[in-house]
């Protein structure tokens, strides 16, 4: 029965590739056939039927099952091996693997689909003898160099090596391996001493252009010791305190030494390099050229990083004081926004304190509450009104009289408070007022619906009329940000605000008689 079964019958009885060797063993036992021959030959007369009488179908089937149980799955014998055909994609040459083994660490060659396709194209041209005409594109070459260096640096740092960048020897080995894996990179020019020299130069140039990462210090890093303001007298050689200070200039180099501990001072003295700060400034300029209103957080971070170079530029006194605000606003248009203007005040006074502006507004509110009663006590103000805007205007008009200066205002100004704010009349134009104003100091112009903060003849920004009670802080931010001089007619008032609200010290020579008298009366009242 078994010799009469064909290969198809055995395949039906024992289907699947897992029974292939069992089917072959049964076929060899029941047929005298040479398996090395590809063509099938006729069956011979010898077989298993010579050992047994002609069995029935049931006996043959039982014998087949017994044979399967006794015959384990034999191991494959290498009788026939199909011919191997070469793959279409080129294999790396001898020794051109995708890893570069050095004593430490193990680098990996960069590759992608386009680079592998380029290798395939080069291999085809090489078989045709046209490899000399094939050149790797500039984009692929730059991508290969850039990603190779990035991979080497990442592996180098992950290995915990003391040197974060690959050395010249490692770049040489990598360049040799690159031209083996990518033979189209070989430099066959006569001027080159070696085929891998050009690749090594490109790798070395890329390594030199990599910027060393710095430790993250937060959104508002403390980079420099805060500086206080001082007001030198116009008569610096005079020691008589009866000579009043007629002008006050901001000096940003002094600060109380006992305000910070040693670790804090060391941390605050960390600064960016001039080259890095120049890149920050270019980034800031590009943001305002491409976007009308850039993200405030991004701008604030760049201003934090670039503060040293910016303050050196502002404090250099290269331009006249009248032209300084326009020059600074042209270089830093961000200061035309109220948030960045107040944030610059924080950087100058106390950059490390992120809650400085909140604390400043609280101190100003407390100062105004006391000044209300102080003005009523000196008969300069009426009791508080219900209208907050009108009450704030009355407060600002009375402040120069609460803390008077010995110098009278210019003749065109009717009152010393005109150096702080001006309320437009119904038919008055703000531009006309600014052009005829005798002072170039910051001023708040109150219109019917809003308020304008201007410096000299130039409007800087507009803010709601409901925020008029904080306008004195806006004026102080302008004096600090643009490094301006206090007007003589309100120098005492601004000095009091500087020491009592901003908590910033002034120079000893600026503690004039009028300032001392005003502070004595104020301390006595509160």
From TrEMBL:
<protein>
    <submittedName>
        <fullName>Uncharacterized protein</fullName>
    </submittedName>
</protein>
<feature type="region of interest" description="Disordered">
    <location>
        <begin position="206"/>
        <end position="276"/>
    </location>
</feature>
<feature type="compositionally biased region" description="Basic residues">
    <location>
        <begin position="213"/>
        <end position="227"/>
    </location>
</feature>
């Amino acid at each position: 029965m078994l010799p009469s079964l064909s290969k198809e019958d055995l395949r039906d009885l024992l289907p699947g590739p897992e029974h292939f060797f069992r089917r072959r063993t049964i076929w060899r036992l029941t047929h005298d056939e040479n398996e090395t021959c590809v063509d099938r030959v006729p069956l011979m007369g010898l077989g298993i039927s010579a050992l047994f009488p002609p069995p029935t179908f049931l006996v043959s089937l039982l014998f087949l099952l017994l044979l399967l149980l006794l015959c384990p799955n034999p191991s494959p014998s290498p009788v026939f091996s199909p011919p191997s055909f070469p793959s279409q994609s080129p294999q790396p040459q001898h020794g051109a693997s995708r890893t570069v083994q050095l004593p430490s660490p193990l680098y990996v060659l960069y590759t992608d689909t386009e680079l592998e396709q380029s290798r395939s194209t080069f291999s085809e041209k090489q078989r045709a003898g046209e490899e000399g005409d094939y050149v790797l594109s500039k984009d692929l070459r730059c991508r290969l160099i850039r990603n190779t260096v990035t991979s080497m640096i990442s592996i180098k740092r992950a290995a915990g090596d003391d040197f974060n960048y690959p050395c010249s020897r490692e770049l040489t080995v990598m360049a040799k391996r690159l031209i083996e894996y990518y033979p189209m990179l070989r430099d066959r020019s006569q001027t080159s001493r070696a085929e891998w020299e050009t690749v090594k130069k490109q790798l070395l140039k890329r390594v030199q252009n990599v910027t060393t990462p710095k430790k993250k210090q937060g959104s508002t890093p403390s980079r420099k010791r805060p500086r206080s303001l001082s007001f030198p007298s116009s008569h610096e050689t005079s020691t008589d305190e009866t000579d009043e200070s007629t002008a006050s200039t901001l000096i940003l180099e002094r600060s109380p030494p006992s305000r910070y501990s040693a670790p804090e001072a060391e941390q605050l003295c960390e600064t960016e390099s001039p080259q890095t700060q120049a890149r920050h400034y270019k980034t800031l300029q590009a943001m305002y050229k491409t976007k009308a209103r850039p993200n405030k957080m991004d701008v604030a971070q760049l201003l934090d990083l670039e503060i040293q170079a910016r303050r050196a530029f502002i404090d250099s006194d290269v331009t006249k004081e009248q032209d300084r605000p326009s020059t600074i606003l042209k270089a830093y248009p961000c200061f035309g926004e109220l948030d960045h203007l107040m944030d610059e005040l924080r950087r100058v006074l106390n950059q490390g304190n992120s809650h400085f502006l909140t604390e400043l507004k609280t101190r100003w509110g407390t100062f105004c509450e006391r000044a209300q009663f102080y003005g009523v006590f000196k008969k300069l103000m009426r009791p508080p009104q219900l209208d907050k805007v009108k009450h704030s205007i009355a407060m600002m008009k009375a402040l120069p009289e609460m803390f008077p200066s010995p110098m009278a205002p210019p003749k065109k100004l009717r009152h010393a408070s005109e150096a702080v704010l001006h309320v437009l009349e119904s038919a008055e134009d703000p531009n006309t007022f600014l052009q005829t104003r005798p002072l170039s100091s910051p001023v708040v112009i109150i219109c019917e619906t809003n308020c304008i903060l201007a410096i000299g003849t130039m409007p800087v920004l507009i803010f709601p009329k409901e925020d008029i009670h904080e306008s004195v802080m806006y004026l102080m931010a302008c004096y600090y940000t643009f490094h301006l001089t206090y007007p003589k007619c309100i120098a005492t008032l601004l000095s009091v605000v500087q020491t009592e609200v901003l908590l910033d010290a002034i120079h000893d020579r600026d503690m004039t008689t009028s300032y001392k008298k005003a502070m004595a009366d104020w301390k006595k009242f509160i």
